[in-house]
Specification:
With about 110 residues, the protein is of the alpha+beta class. It has one domain. The protein is built from two helices and four strands. The protein has a four-stranded antiparallel β-sheet, with no helix packed on it. Helix 1 packs across helix 2. The relative contact order is 0.19.
């Protein structure tokens, strides 16, 4: 990836949706969750992701809907959002108490043809 000016939404897209659209009543919390996970998984043909179901990969984000906020700017595009305390990827904690762990359970996934 060529380095240049990175857009702040690189780190803040979904935090902005949850932080602004949900709090303003433009989207429901459930609608924003679907937009962030279920819909992309469905469009990409990822049958075991995007929903919380038995047998699905446990990719979960625990967020506080009253405090989640994107913080990235053009000057500092890699600022992580506030209001996210826990993230699990494939069932392993990668963010715990707001801090990154050393776990690297993610893998490249490709669209099903």
């Amino acid at each position: 990836m060529a380095m240049g000016i990175m857009h702040p939404r690189f780190c803040g897209t979904y935090a902005r949706i949850f932080g602004q659209c949900v709090r303003k009543g433009i989207l429901s919390l459930e609608g924003a969750s679907w937009k962030a996970s279920g819909f992309p998984a469905q469009k990409l043909g990822l049958a075991d992701r995007g929903l919380i179901r038995e047998g699905y990969k446990a990719d979960l984000v625990v967020l506080n809907p009253t405090t989640i906020q994107d913080r990235a700017t053009y000057a500092e595009p890699l600022q992580y959002p506030s209001g996210i305390e826990t993230v699990l990827v494939n069932g392993e904690m990668v963010i715990e108490a707001g801090k990154q762990t050393r776990a690297r359970p993610g893998r490249v996934i490709r669209r099903k043809s």
